[in-house]
Write a structure and sequence with these properties.
Blueprint: E1 2-5, H1 6-14, H2 17-29, H3 38-49, H4 54-61, H5 67-84, E2 91-92, E3 97-101, E4 106-110, E5 114-118, E6 121-128, H6 137-151, E7 160-165, E8 170-173, H7 179-196
Parallel strand pairs: 1-4, 6-7
Antiparallel strand pairs: 2-5, 3-4, 5-6, 7-8
Helix pairs in contact: 1-6, 2-7, 3-4, 3-5, 6-7
Length: 199
């Protein structure tokens, strides 16, 4: 069974066949070869929501050893603060669901980062913070579809399900998901499954 977090799966959606092959080779044959960019960013966002001092947040953001990693986290965090920093309804979401794609031997771990309440309605967010490749709307729709189907029977079932791209920043929601989105998702999963057998 191939397992992905939702952000890492969306990155696979962004890649062409050559890129997917290389990414799968690294995932399956070179464990721990990548840097978990999202971890310090998520920790910093959680700390902000919990009301941590700026010095503590800076320590989290400055923890990576490489300057480009620190810059990546800082830029994404600043975009988050600009969009949500004054939102008093924001809350950390700690629930995780598994989205299985049995036909292609894939499981996607779906772990929303935070929720907001806007005009009395809940918005559930997963974060995208990868600048290259830039997130395309059709792939953001895949993320929103997976998020909505994963959490439809939970207490968040009536939420608007969103992928928050902190590189632009722009928020995509499930309002643009269509029947075509399911077809694209199946095509991506078929491609990933087929390529995984070649590495």
């Amino acid at each position: 069974m191939l397992t992905f977090s939702l952000p890492s799966f969306l990155k696979m959606c962004q890649l062409d066949s050559h890129g997917r092959h290389a990414a799968l080779d690294a995932k399956l044959n070179k464990p721990n070869s990548g840097y978990p960019f999202h971890r310090p960013l998520r920790d910093a966002i959680n700390a902000h929501i919990d009301g941590a001092d700026q010095a503590d947040i800076d320590e989290i953001l400055n923890a990576p050893s490489q300057e480009h990693q620190r810059r990546y986290n800082r830029n994404a965090f600043d975009a988050f603060v600009k969009r949500f920093g004054k939102d008093k309804s924001i809350a950390i979401v700690r629930e995780t669901e598994i989205y299985p794609v049995h036909a292609h031997g894939i499981e996607i771990t779906v772990s929303p980062w935070f929720s907001t309440v806007e005009n009395g309605h809940t918005y559930l967010h997963v974060v995208w913070a990868t600048s290259k490749p830039a997130l395309e709307r059709r792939n953001a729709n895949i993320g929103c579809l997976i998020l909505s189907e994963s959490f439809s029977s939970t207490r968040y079932g009536n939420s608007t399900f969103c992928v928050m791209d902190l590189t632009k920043p722009i928020r995509f929601s499930d309002k643009t998901v269509s029947a075509k989105t399911s077809v694209i998702l199946d095509d991506v999963c078929r491609s990933i499954s087929s390529l995984a057998k070649q590495v």
